[in-house]
Amino acid sequence: MSAKVITLKIAGPAGAGIKSSGLLFSNILLKHGYNLRDYSEYPSLVRGGHNTYQVSFSSEEIFAPHYLVDLFFSLVPGHWQMHQSELSPDSIVFSDEEGKHRLPLTELSQQLGSSIYANTICLGTAAFILHLDINLCRQTISGQFGSESPNNQAFNLGYDYAAKNYIDLKNIYPQKTPAPSDKVIYDGNEAYGWGFINAGGNLYSAYPMTPATGALHFLAAKQTEHKFTVIHPEDEIAAASIAAGAAFAGSRSAVGTSGGGFALMTETVSLCGAANLGVVFYLVSRPGPATGLPTWTGQGDLLFAVHSGHGEFNKIVLAPGDQQQSFELSVQALNLAAKFNIPVILLSDKFISESSASLPDLSKIKIDISKSTTSLPGTPGHEYLANSYEHGSDGFSTEDSDTIVESVNQRLAQNKDIFAALPKPELIAPKSAKKLIISWGSTRATVLETLRLMGESDFAYLHLTSLWPINPDLRLLIKPFEHITVIENNATAQLVTLLKSQFDFNPNRIILKYDGRPFFPEELAVKLKN
């Protein structure tokens, strides 16, 4: 067990309710005042296979889930053995197999008539060992399933069994829990959705594609209450075209997709660049070309996002580093799209979008909204012609040499104002630090948690949320440091390529991971120490 951080993991086949029960337990932890970060893995299967949910929690701030597991619950035999590398001598494994901590899930769940209740039995066992308030646990379970649900009995069965058989384990963990918290659990898709709502989003158009689908489901459920429109069209081309048309009509519009869907949207990205249409493209990347790894994570779409569309035009690429920044950058993306009337790409990944964190109540945060600078159709004396053809200031098509040059220069001249409006790089630099870590996107969470665990003062950390256009002044933040390490969740060091294209940049070390899994603090600490 890492100091002041406990990690619990549940494993079993798809269809066993692993993530739903894991999120239920996370809500119980939240109501006890714990801060938490979770992570789930699942193959692209409806039934069977091997699914996991893990949550790392602490009374103090925590940035990322941990790799080493303290409490492991295997819903069916044979699953915990697939995670030997995550277990330490202090790890406690519960499984319906003969062993030191056998938990007879089959026998207990048969008392309720179905094996589906095995997950809630595990929660009861965990609640006992972790000294959780049994009444608060029961209230939370009843609140989710109803007071008559067999899940209430399942929790009691697990709690009572642990009280009789695992009394020796109760002394391992702290007996005091933190004070109750008013925080809420959000995954990255939900956080993005609240940013869209609170920043005055009018239209969200998307064709389902993992791992962006959660944003579509979340916003569809909120559209009536918050008075905006969600459209699920026949494909990604239609989704992007609808959003572009809505932007022309004055809507603050966005689309959501993953890499394969965004490939179909790139013609609309170019249209937005030519016709000055402010649309937000919420691109939640997954690894690999084509279908790739639909349910896994990676940062392989950075250069794709930066270079999306044909021709030369302005676009903005932002990337959140965690769930809180998913909310903040969702707001900024809509505002920047409205201010500059250009496409804005918000580049996330599965590690952020489908993982959860305890955050302030995002639904209550008030937002300043930037209005569009173009006229709406039908405005007397202020007509705006949106033209996909090269055009002059009057909006009419042209092939005149001088007008073309003037039009291109006028578009690119926005960069100065765009630089001023973009989110600034985040630099955390202890005075003694001579080494610098640079990363972007979801690696932020793991880097911060790694440095917290290591108690490192030798490393400074530079996190980039604005990835295009690159402000050349960025090199001034990097220059003072003697040793540069870049960390990326892809195979080709795409951020390094991007920075090299803008100024002289030669990092001393590049740390990459591209197996569909995120970095974890324990493995990153080893790499940094070496």
Please give a structural write-up.
This protein is of the alpha/beta class and 530 residues long. The protein has 3 domains: 6-181, 3-Layer(aba) Sandwich (Pyruvate-ferredoxin Oxidoreductase, domain 3); 186-421, Rossmann fold (3-Layer(aba) Sandwich), CATH 3.40.50.970; 426-529, 3-Layer(aba) Sandwich (Rossmann fold), CATH 3.40.50.920. The protein has 18 helices and 19 strands. The protein has helices spanning 18-31, 105-110, 118-129, 134-145, 150-165, 188-198, 213-226, 236-248, 259-275, 302-306, 323-340, 350-353, 401-412, 415-421, 443-454, 474-478, 494-500, 521-529; strands at residues 6-14, 35-41, 48-58, 69-74, 87-95, 184-187, 203-206, 229-231, 253-257, 279-285, 316-318, 344-349, 356-359, 426-428, 435-440, 459-464, 466-468, 483-488, 509-512. Strands 8-7-9-10-12-11-17 form a 7-stranded mixed beta sheet, with helices on both faces. The protein has a 5-stranded mixed beta sheet with strand order 2-3-1-4-5, with helices on one face. It is globular and about 85 Å long.
Measured between the Cα atoms of the first and last residue, the distance is 22 Å
Percent range for β-strand residues: 15-25%
Overall number of domains: 3
Radius of gyration: 25 Å
Query: How many H/I helical runs?
Result: 18
> So what's the CATH class of the largest domain?
Alpha Beta
What share of the residues lie within helices? Answer: 25-40%
- How would you state the average pLDDT, rounded? 94
> Which of globular, elongated, flat, extended, rod-shaped describes the shape?
globular
Per the CATH scheme, the topology name of the largest domain is: Rossmann fold
Number of strands: 19
Classified in CATH, the superfamily of the largest domain is: Thiamin diphosphate (ThDP)-binding fold, Pyr/PP domains
The second-level CATH architecture of the largest domain is: 3-Layer(aba) Sandwich
| Low-confidence region ranges | none
Which structural class is indicated by helix and strand composition?
alpha/beta
Strand order of the largest sheet: 8-7-9-10-12-11-17
Largest sheet: 7 strands, mixed
